Amino acid sequence: MDFLRRVLGLLPSVSILSSAILCVLIPMCFYWVSDRMRKHDPPWKQDHPDNQLEGSMLPPGSSNDQYEDLT
Questions:
Q1: What is the DSSP letter of 71?
Q2: Which residues of 2-25 are buried (b: 16+ CB within 10 A; e: fewer)?
Q3: When comparing pLDDT for 25 and 65, which is higher?
Q4: Distance CA 48, CA 41 (A)
Q5: Phi/psi of residue 55, nearest 5 degrees
Q6: Residue range 22-58, pLDDT digits in tens
Q7: What is the per-residue DSSP string for 1-70?
Q8: pTM for the full model?
Q9: Of 58, 37, 57, 56, nearest to 46 (Cα)?
């Protein structure tokens, strides 16, 4: 019985335990909500794989380079 009292005396108070739990749960909730919202981002804001972007846009200033040889 003395051992149990000593172990219970070493545990932090309920307010400290609840604060520690909230320090974990609140960021997890924000991450979960932002992850769900990110799935509904507009196309221009979404991340695309590198291979999907190849050939989709020319670098700045080179859009008219292909027509220089014709003139």
A1: -
A2: eeeeeeeeeeeeeeeeeeeeeeee
A3: 25
A4: 12
A5: 80, 0
A6: 999 999 999 999 989 888 877 777 776 655 545 556 5
A7: -HHHHHHHHHSPPHHHHHHHHHHHHHHHHHHHHHHHHHTT--GGGS---HHHHTTTSPPTT-TTGGGTTT
A8: 0.48
A9: 37
Alpha carbon distance 41, 47 (integer Å):
10
Q: Which tokens sit at 37?
A: 């919202």
Position of tokens 């749960």?
A: 25
Q: What contacts 54, CB < 8 A, 6 or more positions away?
A: none
